[in-house]
Amino acid sequence: MQLNTEKMIARAEDGVGWMIFNNPERRNAMANEMRLAMIEILGAYAEDDAIGAVVMTGAGGKAFVSGADISEFEERRSSPELIAEYNEVGRQVSAAFEKLEKPLIAMIQGFCMGGGLATALKADMRFASDDSQFGIPAVKLGLGYEASAVKALTDFVGPAYAGEILMTGRRFNADEALRMGLVNNVVSVDKLEETVMETASAIAAAAPLTVRSMKANVRATRLDADQRDDAHLQELVDACFNSEDYIEGRRAFMEKRPAQWKGR
């Protein structure tokens, strides 16, 4: 995919779309041009029927994303007007994540800090190498942290761990992150990509309508009852049972062969 920045890479293989943070000399610190490219990448993958799952990761082996690019703060976050503009891009990035109906996996190696951790929490699953480090150092920078971001963190780790992460600003190692529920699994560096690809490929090979329904229903469990669109969630379930893929899945099971999914 041709992008307007070299600090992001998008490529696809075997039904899996990759979104790679490519700013390794700054430990993949999130520059504004990277955020704008994320909107484009996620939008393209959302519309591409050939993509069954998406993996996001950092280039260079030292970091997933080490946080926001603080060197831009004077230019982009130094007045109420600039902060509002910066936050608007953030809302567009969040909307792009929300519109992605395909499962998203974060492959984390090295630093996953601040905005990097917030980005990783957008994923449906997180796999980390055993040398990874996690944290949100906002209290060491004097930054405010929006209520929606606090809730997203608390949904995964609970209020006690969220308070420890946010109010101490300290770094946590991969084993601590696993214990808190920040990540699904921790593996050695040499096994990380293999582990992620096994999961992503299995998802990409599954029935797409069912996968979409599962993702939507799992995510809805994090919403209050009055925020859930239960009718839409049921529509997604009904679409599975009314699909050609449901017929194909039954036949393939009886005939002991791989199913040929059409997504309809």
What does this structure look like?
- With 264 residues, this protein is an alpha/beta fold.
- The protein has two domains: 8-204, 2-enoyl-CoA Hydratase, Chain A, domain 1; 208-255.
- 48% of the residues lie in helices and 16% in strands.
- It has helices at residues 32-47, 73-76, 80-99, 115-120, 147-168, 174-180, 189-204, 208-220, 230-241, 244-255, and strands spanning 8-13, 16-21, 53-58, 63-65, 104-108, 111-113, 125-129, 133-135, 172-173, 185-187.
- Strands 1-2-3-5-7-10 form a six-stranded mixed β-sheet, with helices on both faces. Strands 4-6-8-9 form a four-stranded mixed β-sheet.
- Helix 1 (32-47) packs parallel to helix 3 (80-99) and helix 8 runs antiparallel to helix 9 (230-241).
- It is globular.
- The two termini are 26 Å apart.
Give the topology:
Elements lengths: L7 E6 L2 E6 L10 H16 L5 E6 L4 E3 L7 H4 L3 H20 L4 E5 L2 E3 L1 H6 L4 E5 L3 E3 L11 H22 L3 E2 H7 L4 E3 L1 H16 L3 H13 L9 H12 L2 H12 L9
Parallel strand pairs: 2-3, 3-5, 4-6, 5-7, 6-8, 7-10
Antiparallel strand pairs: 1-2, 8-9
As a whole number of angstroms, the C-alpha radius of gyration is 19 Å
Shape: globular
- Biggest sheet character: 6 strands, mixed
Tally of helical segments = 10
| CATH superfamily (homologous) name of the largest domain | 2-enoyl-CoA Hydratase, Chain A, domain 1
Count of the domains: 2
CATH topology of the largest domain: 2-enoyl-CoA Hydratase, Chain A, domain 1
What spatial order of strands do you see in the largest sheet? 1-2-3-5-7-10
Give the helices and strands as they follow along the chain. Answer: EEHEEHHEEHEEHEHEHHHH
Helix content: 40-55%
The CATH architecture of the largest domain comes to Alpha-Beta Complex
CATH top level of the largest domain is Alpha Beta
How much of the sequence is in beta strands?
15-25%
